[in-house]
């Protein structure tokens, strides 16, 4: 486990590379719910990596499936060719998704899934003779990846501003968090009316210019903002009224994070399109997917007009990569055999109790949580975002990895975590966030 000494050549994303070189944080090994640093220190994984590893790290079953697939069929082009495993995986996913969402397109990252979903929306409307529907709606503080489509949808202004000359036309709605919801465990009772922003946008911009509305069912990257009761239902009704497609970006919430396979099932609202990634392969191999209905797929197919033309000029070299498909199938087997979505639901009350027990600590200004996903809002410092990075570093030094986003921490343990792991997580959080000063 050697620490490299030359940090010049690898350009890291979302990182101030100069600062990183001075104080690098690294993991060299992982097993179960723990990472090991190059120095041999153990760090408890409080964020499933980056919401990727509900089944824990180093799963032998996935490694074996990957190896077997590599030696059987390591690669097949996805254009005019396919591998048997991709059909098997699509069928398995159709069985997990809400009824009706049973047509699956594969890509390699959440960002690719989001851009694919945008193109499906645009092609769908064009096929219906509504090609003028080219605008999208998303939410303030939403995150939908960093390809140009996702950058356009980005509700974090910093992620979008510098690219404003080349981004797509997106109108942003308000986020659902409000002061009166502070310290709400589960779904807030108030705030459903914020969905009416969508109706307002339809009136202001003309509903017939809008292709679709993208939301994360639980807004992840702002630090876990849970939809108020009735909010998603209202979005669904408005989308139906105005002929917009509703897209749930389940890149974080998919595969059990809410205690159900998908958040759309937990909240009882079915979108037209779902995007997923991360936990699809338990983080082991990059893979993502977009699921939609047969009716939408049929309409998109009709856009081709004649037999020689593709329905949709879209697809990636690594779409439905056989090795990724094999990793995903092995992952879904683990989720099923170990009943991990049920386990997430069963573990959630103890997890959320631990999180909400942090309520009176000096560094904490709000707590939010649902299922196995929680947000800890930190009492802000003078400079926005500074507290988040200080806290995540102090927690890392104390032996806990969690994702910081602005001045919030996102906690998302693996579903294989034991109660003792959650206790240890609580101990470290209490110790560090209980300090009057984090610097
Ligand atoms: N959508 C959501 C909701 C996400 O949280 C993320 C990644 N955190 C993405 C899209 C982008 O996924 P990726 O980084 O795999 O491109």
UniProtKB/TrEMBL annotation:
The keyword Transferase applies. PROSITE patterns: AA_TRANSFER_CLASS_3. Pfam families: Aminotran_3. It comes from the Bacteria. CDD domains: OAT_like (cd00610). PANTHER family: AMINOTRANSFERASE (PTHR43094), AMINOTRANSFERASE CLASS-III (PTHR43094:SF1). This is Aminotransferase class III-fold pyridoxal phosphate-dependent enzyme. It comes from Jiella endophytica. The lineage of its organism: Bacteria, Pseudomonadati, Pseudomonadota, Alphaproteobacteria, Hyphomicrobiales.
């Amino acid at each position: 486990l050697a620490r490299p000494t030359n940090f010049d050549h690898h350009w890291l994303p979302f990182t101030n590379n100069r600062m990183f070189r001075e104080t690098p944080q690294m993991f060299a090994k992982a097993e179960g719910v723990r990472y090991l640093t190059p120095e041999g220190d153990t760090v408890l994984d409080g964020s499933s990596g980056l919401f990727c590893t509900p089944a824990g790290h180093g799963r032998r079953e996935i490694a074996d499936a990957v190896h077997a697939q590599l030696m059987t069929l390591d690669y097949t082009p996805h254009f005019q060719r396919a591998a048997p495993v991709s059909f098997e995986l699509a069928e398995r996913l159709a069985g997990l998704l809400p009824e009706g969402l049973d047509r699956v397109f594969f890509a390699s990252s959440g960002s690719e899934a989001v851009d694919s979903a945008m193109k499906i929306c645009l092609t769908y409307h064009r096929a219906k003779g509504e090609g003028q529907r080219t605008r999208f709606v998303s939410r303030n503080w939403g995150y939908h990846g960093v390809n140009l489509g996702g950058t356009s949808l980005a509700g974090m202004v910093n992620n979008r501003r510098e690219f404003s000359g080349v981004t797509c036309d997106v109108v942003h709605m308000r986020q659902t968090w409000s002061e009166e919801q502070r310290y709400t465990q589960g779904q807030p009772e108030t705030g459903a009316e914020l969905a009416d922003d969508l109706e307002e946008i339809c009136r202001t911009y003309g509903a017939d210019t809008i292709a679709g509305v993208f939301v994360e069912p639980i807004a992840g990257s702002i630090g876990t903002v849970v939809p108020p009761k009735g909010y998603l239902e209202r979005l669904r009704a408005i989308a139906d009224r105005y002929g917009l497609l509703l897209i749930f970006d389940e890149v974080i919430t998919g595969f059990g994070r809410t205690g159900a396979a998908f958040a759309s099932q937990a909240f009882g609202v079915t979108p037209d399109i779902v995007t997923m990634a991360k936990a699809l392969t338990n983080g082991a191999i990059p893979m993502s997917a977009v699921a939609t209905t047969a009716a939408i797929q049929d309409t998109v197919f009709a856009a081709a007009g004649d037999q020689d033309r593709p329905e949709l000029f879209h697809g990636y070299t690594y779409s439905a990569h056989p090795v990724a498909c094999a990793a995903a199938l092995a992952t879904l087997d683990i989720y099923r055999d170990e009943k991990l979505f049920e386990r997430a639901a069963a573990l959630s009350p103890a997890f959320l109790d631990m999180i909400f027990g942090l309520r009176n600590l000096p560094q904490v200004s709000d707590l939010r949580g649902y299922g196995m996903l929680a947000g800890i809002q930190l009492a802000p410092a003078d400079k926005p975002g500074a507290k988040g990075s200080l806290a995540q570093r102090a927690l890392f030094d104390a032996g806990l990895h969690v994702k910081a986003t602005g001045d919030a921490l996102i906690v998302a343990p693996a579903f294989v975590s034991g109660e003792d792991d959650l206790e240890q997580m609580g101990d470290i959080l209490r110790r560090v966030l209980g300090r009057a000063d984090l610097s």
